[in-house]
Amino acid sequence: MSTDSNVTTAAKGVRRGGLREKLQQLMALLGLLIIFAAFSFASPTYFPTYSNVISILYSAVVIGLLALGATLVIITGGIDLSVGTGMTLSAVMAATFIVTWGLPVWLGILCTLLFGAFLGLVNGTNVAILGLPPFIATLAMMLVAQGLALVISKAIPIYFDPVAHSSYLWLSNGELIPSTGFPNAVVVLVLAALVAFVLLNKTLLGRYDISIGSNEEATALSGINTKKWTMIIYSVAGVFTALGAIMISARLGSAQPATGAGYELQAIAAVVIGGTSLSGGKGTIVGTIIGALIISVINNGLQIMSMPQQWQNVILGLVILVVVFIDQLRSKRAATT
């Protein structure tokens, strides 16, 4: 009788968790629509136009790709502060592979993705094997990546040749459907989100990711090598970071060694806005994409309203503060139910 009761209680807990997750996604989507409507009302001439909507989607690509990787890491109960400068270093390496070393574009892209995985593996090793707190491990990587990007590029941008490297630039700026203004980068984000969704919901990686974040000790006691899977998760997150590097460098036509700072905060904000808990154990890819769109809409709307950059940062910081506070309340409420 007690066993049946436990099974019933567990089933109810799963159902409640699923309903709570869907409600969080719905709230995030509702928030996106409200923010979009508010900016449309404030600037009806420019904000809701087709070209500006495309611009919003375009600017959400890099944040979204970084946030996809950050989602997998945060679900484990960790954090990755190195996604911004890691993206910068990966972009510099992409330019080094393709421009400086003269590798074919496809090989340069493959090497860049592998390099991103390597950066993630280093983070995962520091966290899982050396036992460093994720905050400290990724903070150190943030500084290392920032410095290496400047050293390798000699602190100057590395430009892609518009003719010789046109296929690389096309990855972000090109249009699969001509004359629509719809850039390939948005298609890449959608495909990457689908891959991340499958990884999180349909594979062992996703199952162990959630399990580690929910209770790492219990997961280890069940016979799962949590250290190995933590390293794998960080490595996969690094691939998404490298993909973001490819998109931003292809969009700019160059690798800018001084960019990247601040992207980690926007990526983490997108993840939390989307419903992923900073305490780990739960998260959604759909919510993360909605969160990235919210960040992009806010940035775009404030720019159209000629809001000074410093005030844009203030507002974004307040958004992050409110969202994290709500996440803490949400976690406490879930713990008492």
- Percent of sequence in beta strands: under 5%
- Quaternary state reads single chain
CATH class: Mainly Alpha
Largest sheet: 2 strands, antiparallel
Number of domains: 1
> Which fold does the CATH topology refer to?
ABC transporter involved in vitamin B12 uptake, BtuC
Average of pLDDT: 89
**Biggest sheet, spatial arrangement of strands:** 1-2
Structure explained in plain terms:
This protein has one domain: Orthogonal Bundle (ABC transporter involved in vitamin B12 uptake, BtuC), CATH 1.10.3470. 77% of the residues lie in helices and 1% in strands. Residues 1-15 have low confidence and may be disordered. With 337 residues, it is mainly α. The longest helix has 41 residues, at 2-42. It has a two-stranded antiparallel sheet.
Quick overview of this protein structure:
The protein has helices at 2-42, 50-75, 83-100, 105-128, 134-153, 166-173, 184-202, 204-214, 216-221, 226-252, 263-273, 285-304, 309-336; strands spanning 158-159, 254-255.
Give the secondary structure arrangement, pairings included.
Elements: H1 2-42, H2 50-75, H3 83-100, H4 105-128, H5 134-153, E1 158-159, H6 166-173, H7 184-202, H8 204-214, H9 216-221, H10 226-252, E2 254-255, H11 263-273, H12 285-304, H13 309-336
Antiparallel strand pairs: 1-2
Helix pairs in contact: 1-12, 2-7, 2-8, 2-10, 2-11, 2-12, 3-4, 3-5, 3-10, 4-5, 4-10, 6-7, 6-10, 7-8, 8-10, 11-12, 11-13
What features would you highlight for this structure?
about 325 residues; mainly alpha; 13 helices; globular; ABC transporter involved in vitamin B12 uptake, BtuC
